[in-house]
Automatic annotation (TrEMBL), chain A:
<feature type="domain" description="ABC transporter">
    <location>
        <begin position="6"/>
        <end position="257"/>
    </location>
</feature>
<dbReference type="GO" id="GO:0015833">
    <property type="term" value="P:peptide transport"/>
</dbReference>
<dbReference type="InterPro" id="IPR027417">
    <property type="entry name" value="P-loop_NTPase"/>
</dbReference>
<dbReference type="GO" id="GO:0055085">
    <property type="term" value="P:transmembrane transport"/>
</dbReference>
<keyword id="KW-0547">Nucleotide-binding</keyword>
<dbReference type="InterPro" id="IPR017871">
    <property type="entry name" value="ABC_transporter-like_CS"/>
</dbReference>
<feature type="domain" description="ABC transporter">
    <location>
        <begin position="295"/>
        <end position="535"/>
    </location>
</feature>
<keyword id="KW-0813">Transport</keyword>
<protein>
    <recommendedName>
        <fullName>ABC transporter domain-containing protein</fullName>
    </recommendedName>
</protein>
TrEMBL record, chain B:
<feature type="transmembrane region" description="Helical">
    <location>
        <begin position="281"/>
        <end position="307"/>
    </location>
</feature>
<dbReference type="Pfam" id="PF00528">
    <property type="entry name" value="BPD_transp_1"/>
</dbReference>
<keyword id="KW-0813">Transport</keyword>
<dbReference type="InterPro" id="IPR000515">
    <property type="entry name" value="MetI-like"/>
</dbReference>
<dbReference type="Pfam" id="PF19300">
    <property type="entry name" value="BPD_transp_1_N"/>
</dbReference>
<feature type="transmembrane region" description="Helical">
    <location>
        <begin position="99"/>
        <end position="122"/>
    </location>
</feature>
<feature type="transmembrane region" description="Helical">
    <location>
        <begin position="239"/>
        <end position="261"/>
    </location>
</feature>
<keyword id="KW-1003">Cell membrane</keyword>
<keyword id="KW-0812">Transmembrane</keyword>
């Protein structure tokens, strides 16, 4: 057995200064990574996995304090090293790929310049040589036209391209270890699959060891040799990927695995028989006919220049009690459709009929009842709940607006609403920041329910949440639908979720449907090519994918592949 | 970008035209006219009539405005009613003085606000930061005339170190010049810098918490470079807008401060001209100040385009 490249020994990290009021984020964690090995670190948010990832670069997150432990990189403890030597490690021998590519590149600097900077700081090359090296790196992560791309600013790149730039930056000095902190979490399914493939290629060519932090066991299964599972700061299980995924010993690991949405297997408590699910009844409740929607341009040029529509000629209908899913990659027009139905995009053509009546394109001209009967839950509860309002005030507003409830009645009704989303009524006096992400999303759902709607539009309501929380929210939505006979327009990019949750599905590609119909039909062959691509991109739980172990392909210098234009 | 500049220049001309109309009519509506102001109380009706005739005050206001406008378009600012000299001559001296004063203020303003703002941000929560925050808060709260009077009573009246009046015309040596200008400069700089320091501090603290600053550290960038190359350029955009507001304030602030210190600049000229109802001078000075204001805003907007590539490609 070879000596470990990096060994974490009994690492303990606290948040907070006072010993009495501190929170133990990492508690006696030990593991090691051998040269060329990929270790997956799984766990939910708050489990301390990112704090561990930062510690491998000898960086403390704000407010944290390393209580004890050692981190031996190539035999040397890096935690007590002086700042100057630590800087040589970071970006030099240990590369880092962050969670959120959109906020991790300096907006005022061209991306090529940022890679060149890394190269120059570590003295690998200077000037023109450094620029050539940077372009070479951009080509290696399959970015098209590296020379032109190097001169572009971060905001001119897509999320997938930004993440490729960051991976190129991490590779700039040929590190021996790559630390990846949820590198695909903010990305689309297809982009995510491409990044995973890229990482497998890099690993095969450079034999770089990796610590891959993720809450997604399916993604880890594709890449990791071994997986470690963290819960509440402790390492609960570590072992070869096949045995963790195939026969987990710890109950918590089993919970994580069971919560993963799976295309081939319905979640617990849901039968495969779609006919048994409430398929909706009678005539359509919501009919969308030839919808075309565009965003208004900005500034003076909006007067003479119309932007191309983001949604082009989309038609579908939803029956009462049915769940209709809209899927597609980001930018495909999913949310625009939701906004157009709600009357939030006045530049709309085509008809939206609700319960047999035409809805005006501008919600300001809606009749009062319509606004109550159609409600929406947004993607990110952090952004959609007013942080200064208590839960009682958040729920009280629609109750007052639609039903004229005040004082004690309103509070009682708000408490009932909390119970209906399975939250403790004691939460009424809390503010959103005193709740967890899943609890916040429950409050957002309760707020929508306060209006006693018939149609509930769920705009990516799961994507800001952890996998196990996602499963809970989905179960809640199912129960609510049965209890209240709700009609859902469910917007998601997660095909595995949609497969078992919706009856009908529309697959959006660049503002148009490329597939539309019952879930079974759309998801079973023959597929439309785009649907097939989306389906293929869904990570499945299985023992290490043949991707991970496959021999190095001759992709360096070879022709750019189709997948490179993320 | 050239399109933007051309558009902004056109709208600047329109703004100037509107300002001139508003100012002209506001002065017109003030009771009394220039003849009464010039001749004082003990005057005969015949004397008034003669002077009005000489100054052409009898003509309808619109045609006087049109006459003035035609003159301006052909490069003639008109004649000052109170002194009888061409407005361009009347303006030259005070404009130079004001330019000197505001120039010194601006030269101090940029390094001071940048330096203090960055210093406070990187020492967030430490004594330096708290002291900077306290002083800028005081600077923001006190109106400039209070600061001016306070400074005068301490340094000029009580201690006698500096002259209470900034009579720049009587300054013969360079030392005199400095002593004369010190109090007005400090007054104006204090008020302007306070806002900018706080803005730069706030923005920089936000940026220092951002993902890209974290990333810059994690790729081994030296701290100084992280601050100067990654953080600062992204924190300056909002500060530039504050600077534009500050310069706008400065065009008004000099009127107050020049009057208090009796500084012979455009501000005092404007106040004198208004009390004399010297319409051509009022119009010229207010248009000059408006023009400076619009120009500074344009410069600030172009500046934020330079610092923010996102805005640049959106155009």
């Amino acid at each position: 057995m070879t000596a470990p490249l990096i060994a974490v020994d009994d690492l303990t990290i606290d948040y907070g200064r006072q010993p009495a009021a501190c929170h133990r984020a990492v508690d006696g964690v030990s593991f090691d990574i051998r040269p060329g090995e990929v270790l997956g670190l799984a766990g939910e948010s708050g489990s301390g996995k990112s704090t561990v990832a930062y510690a491998l670069l000898a960086r403390r997150r704000p407010g944290s304090r390393i209580v004890s432990g050692r981190i031996l990189f190539e035999g040397e403890d890096i935690l007590p090293l002086p700042e100057r030597q630590v800087r040589l490690l970071r970006g030099g021998r240990i590369g880092f790929v962050p969670q959120n590519p959109a906020t991790s590149l300096t907006p005022s600097m061209p991306v090529g310049r940022q890679i060149v900077e890394t190269i120059e700081i570590h003295g690998v090359a200077r000037g023109a040589a450094a620029r050539r090296l940077a372009e070479d790196l951009l080509a290696r992560v399959h970015l098209p036209e590296p020379q032109a791309l190097a001169r572009r600013y971060p905001h001119q790149l897509s999320g997938g391209q930004q993440q490729r730039v960051l991976i190129a930056m991490a590779l700039a000095c040929r590190p021996r270890l790559l630390v990846l902190d949820e590198p695909t979490t903010g990305l689309d399914v297809t982009t995510q699959a491409q990044i995973l493939t890229l990482l497998a290629d890099i690993r095969a060519e450079f034999a770089t060891a990796m610590l891959y932090v993720s809450h997604d066991l399916a993604a880890l299964g594709r890449l990791a040799d071994r997986i470690a599972v963290m819960k509440d700061g402790r390492l609960v299980e570590i072992g070869p990927t096949a045995s963790i995924v195939g026969s987990p010993r710890q109950p918590y690991t089993r919970v994580l695995l069971a919560a993963l949405p799976d295309l081939d297997r319905p979640p617990a408590g849901v039968t495969d028989d779609a006919a048994k699910r409430n398929g909706g009844e009678g005539k359509p409740l919501l009919e969308i006919d030839g919808l075309v929607a565009a965003y208004r341009g900005e500034g003076l040029s909006a007067i003479w220049r119309r932007p191309p529509p983001t949604v082009r000629d989309v038609s579908f209908s939803i029956r009462r009690g049915e769940t209709f899913a809209l899927i597609g990659e980001s930018g495909s027009g999913k949310s625009t459709i939701a906004r157009a139905i709600l009357g939030l995009t006045p530049h709309r053509r085509g008809g939206v009929r609700f319960d047999g009546r035409d809805l005006p394109a501008d919600a300001r001209r809606w009749q009062g009842e319509w606004r109550r009967r159609i409600q929406i839950v947004f993607q990110n509860p952090d952004a959609s709940l007013n942080p200064r309002h208590s839960v009682a005030a958040i729920l009280g507003r629609p109750l007052e607006r639609f039903f004229g409830l005040r004082g004690r009645d309103r509070r009682l009704r708000a408490a009932e609403l909390l119970e209906s989303v399975r939250l403790d009524p004691a939460f009424l006096d809390r503010r959103p920041d005193q709740l967890s992400g899943g609890q916040r999303q429950r409050v957002a759902i309760a707020r929508a329910l306060a209006a006693e709607p018939e149609v509930l539009i769920c705009d990516e309501v799961l994507s800001a949440l952890d996998v196990s929380v996602q499963a809970e929210i989905l179960a809640l939505l199912r129960t609510l639908q049965a209890e209240r006979h709700l009609t859902y327009l469910f917007i998601s990019h997660d095909l595995a979720v949609v497969r078992w949750f919706a009856q009908s599905v529309g697959v959006l590609h660049r503002g148009e449907f490329c597939a539309l119909g019952p879930v079974e039909e759309v998801f079973s062959p023959p597929h439309h090519p785009y649907t097939a691509r989306l389906l293929a991109a869904v990570p499945r739980i299985s023992a290490p994918d043949d991707n991970a172990g496959r021999p190095a392909k001759a992709w360096f210098g070879g022709p750019a592949r189709a997948s490179s234009t993320v | 970008m050239p399109k933007l500049i051309a558009f902004r220049c056109l709208s600047a001309l329109a703004t100037l035209a509107v300002v001139s109309v508003i100012v002209f009519w506001m002065v017109e509506w003030l009771p009394g006219d220039a003849a009464e102001r010039l001749l004082g109380r003990d005057v005969t009706a015949a004397g008034l009539a003669a002077l009005r005739d000489k100054l052409q005050l009898g003509i309808a206001p619109w045609s006087r405005y049109g006459h003035w406008l035609a003159g301006v378009l052909s490069g003639d600012l008109g004649t000052s009613i109170s002194s009888g000299r061409p407005v361009a001559d009347v303006l030259a001296g005070p404009a130079g003085n004001t330019l000197l004063l505001t120039g010194i203020v601006l030269v101090l303003y940029f390094p001071l606000s940048l330096g203090l703002g960055v210093w406070a941000a990187v020492r967030q929560g430490r004594p330096v930061d708290l002291a900077v925050q306290l002083f800028t808060l005081i600077g923001m709260c006190l109106p400039e005339y209070v600061v001016a009077i306070a400074l005068t009573s301490v340094f000029a009246v009580k201690l006698g170190w500096l002259p209470p009046l900034a009579l720049i015309d009587q300054a013969h040596t360079f030392g005199d010049l400095i002593r004369t200008l010190l109090l007005p400069t400090v007054t104006l700089t204090a008020a302007m810098t306070a806002y900018a320091v706080r803005m730069i501090r706030e923005c920089l603290i936000d940026v220092l918490r951002s993902g890209y600053v974290d990333m810059a550290h994690l790729k081994g960038t030296p701290p100084r470079r992280v601050l100067l190359r990654h953080a600062l350029p992204n924190a300056l955009g909002p500060a530039l807008n504050v600077t534009a507001l500050n310069v706008a304030w400065l065009t008004g602030g000099i009127v107050v401060v020049e009057t208090i210190f009796n500084f012979p600049g455009l501000g005092r000229l404007l106040v004198d001209a208004i009390s004399n109802k010297d319409v051509p001078v009022i119009l010229s000075v207010s248009l000059l100040l408006t023009g400076v204001y619009i120009f500074c805003n344009l410069v600030a907007d172009i500046g934020s385009l330079v610092f923010n590539p996102k805005l640049r490609s959106a155009r």
